[in-house]
Design a protein that fits this description.
The structure is a single chain. The protein is an alpha+beta fold. It contains two helices and five strands, in the order E-E-H-E-E-H-E. Strands 1, 2, 3, 4 and 5 form a five-stranded antiparallel beta sheet that branches.
């Protein structure tokens, strides 16, 4: 059995709407999700595209050079939960984990 040791981070950022130029106040949070290194889903572009289509997801990106198995997802907490975001990611990688401190 293969084990994986990962560093885990959870970032929460709430930004008033006027700072992100939206018409009403938005509550934006960032989560870091670690994909399993042995995942069969190697297409980070597809994961990003699928997540961006999810209502409430503001941005998605991988840090390919530094942490190829980690992604940061920003989402509106009044529209979608972190559990829903993780559930969407797990459609591709069942072993994906949300990172926390």
């Amino acid at each position: 059995m293969r084990t994986c040791t990962c560093r885990v981070y959870l970032m929460l950022l709430v930004v008033p709407a006027e700072e992100i130029q939206m018409s009403k106040e938005a509550h934006i949070a960032d989560i870091v999700v670690h994909l399993h290194p042995g995942s069969s889903c190697d297409d980070s572009d597809k994961i990003e595209q699928d997540l961006r289509a999810h209502e409430g997801v503001v941005s998605v990106h991988f840090s390919e050079a530094e942490h190829p198995h980690s992604m940061v997802v920003a989402y509106n907490t009044e529209v979608v939960t972190s559990e829903e975001v993780l559930s969407e990611i797990r459609k591709c990688d069942r072993e994906a984990v949300m990172v926390s401190m």
